[in-house]
Amino acid sequence: MAGDGINDAAALKASDVGFAFARGTDLSMEAGDVVIIHGGLEKISEAMDISSLIVRKIRGNLVWAFAYNVVALPAAAMALIHPMMAEAAMTFSSIAVVLNALSIKKTAERLWERGTHMSRYEFDVEGMSCKHCQARVEKALEPLCGFVEVSLEGASAVVESERPAKELLAVLEEAGYPGTLKG
Fold first, then answer.
1. Mean pLDDT score of the chain, rounded to an integer?
2. Are residues 68 and 99 located together in one domain of the fold?
3. In the chain, is it the N or the C terminus that has fewer CB atoms within a 10 Å radius of its CB?
4. pLDDT score of 114
5. How many helices (H) and strands (E) does the chain have?
6. Which of 115, 143, 161 delimits the end of a domain?
7. Phi, psi of 141 (to 5 degrees)
8. Can you give the residue range of the structural domain that contains 96?
9. Does residue 29 share a domain with residue 49?
10. Which of the two residues, 38 and 171, has the higher pLDDT score?
């Protein structure tokens, strides 16, 4: 379940996994199991990929730990191997588990790089005269961007998005605030 409003909070809480969005209400973020900070619905599939990766790593770590406990400990207890060999096997098992867990970061980074090709754009935005205008520009751009920063004083917006600048300019125009790409 994914949601960002007050009316979504009960469903987020009742679902197996609830995805809330940071641009939503505080209640939905509290009710969700996972909060998507930047981006939109496409981030849910990335979160699911990373979740699957972590579950695989946990299972791999359990295999190493149980293999040690099933093989080395009974063999040492029955004096079939020297206790120092059992200790070495335990050390190897612990190191293997740690290295396997550390590999999550590298694999997750590859998943993120595969899924994101963000470009940074700076726009001059016409027609903003108050905080309400600034909020409308932010609200128009947020669904399409991973990062949005709108400056009322500078009459500008800085965004990071996978979408082309032309599409973002069309969204600004549709919201009533025509813009031009800087640089």
1. 85
2. yes
3. C
4. 58
5. 6, 7
6. 115
7. -85, -30
8. 42-115
9. no
10. 171
Same domain, 156 and 123: yes
Number of separate domains in the chain: 3
Query: Both 32 and 52 in a single domain?
Result: no
pLDDT digits (tens, 9 = 90+) for 9-56: 888 888 888 888 887 788 888 888 888 887 677 778 778 888 888 888
Contact at 8 Å (CB) between 127 and 145?
A: no
- Could you tell me the end-to-end alpha-carbon distance of the chain, in angstroms, rounded to an integer? 41
Token readout for 78 is 């029955």
Average pLDDT over residues 124-132: 93
**In a shared domain, residues 130 and 176:** yes
Token pair 């509290």 is found at 30
pTM above 0.85, yes or no: no
Residue partners of 139: CB distance under 8 A and separation at least 6: 175
Joined together, the tokens standing for residue 84 give 């120092």
How far apart CA 181 and CA 168 sit, in angstroms, is 10
DSSP state of 40: -
Q: Do 99 and 132 belong to one domain?
A: no
Name the CA dihedral angle for 135, 166, 125, 20, rounded to a multiple of 10 degrees: 20
Q: Is 127 left (phi over 0), alpha (psi -120 to 50) or beta?
A: left
Q: List the structure tokens of 106.
A: 């590298």
Structure tokens at 76: 């040492």
Within its chain, how far is the Cα of 72 from the centroid? Answer: 40
Write the pLDDT tens digit of every residue in 75-99: 888 888 888 888 888 888 888 888 8
